[in-house]
Amino acid sequence: SNQIQYRKFPKRLKGKRMIIETVNNQLIDQFMIKRNYAKSFAGFDVRIMSKIAALVFSQFLNHLNGNPIGKVKFALAC
């Protein structure tokens, strides 16, 4: 409320925003997406895509096992 052009965030988008922030935090914490020592853009691209693919694969395993897809840390443990 102390911002100059403050607008309330729409309630219908709060759930989607929470999902996006959760996935971003999982990529940063569990898959260490910020730590990347690629020497070229092609290497950077491959490393980022492989980390995103690992996240999607672990979500898919959770879906197959009937677990919540957001808990990717425990996807392979079950």
Q: What is shown here, in short?
A:
The protein is mainly alpha-helical and 78 residues long.
Please explain how this structure is put together.
The N and C termini lie far apart (45 Å). The chain is an all-alpha fold. It is built from two helices and no strands. The protein is flat. The model has no long low-confidence stretch (mean pLDDT 82).
> What is the overall pLDDT average?
82
* H/E element order: HH
Detail the poorly predicted runs: none
Going by helix content, strand content and strand pairing, the class is mainly alpha
Tally of extended strands?
Answer: 0
**Share of helix, binned:** 40-55%
- What is the straight-line distance between the termini? 45 Å
Q: Count of helices?
A: 2
- Radius of gyration over all CA atoms, rounded: 17 Å
Biggest sheet layout: none
Rough outline: flat
Strand % is under 5%
Helix-strand layout with pairing:
Elements: H1 14-29, H2 41-65
Labels describing this entry:
2 helices, 0% strand, 78 residues, single chain, mainly alpha, flat
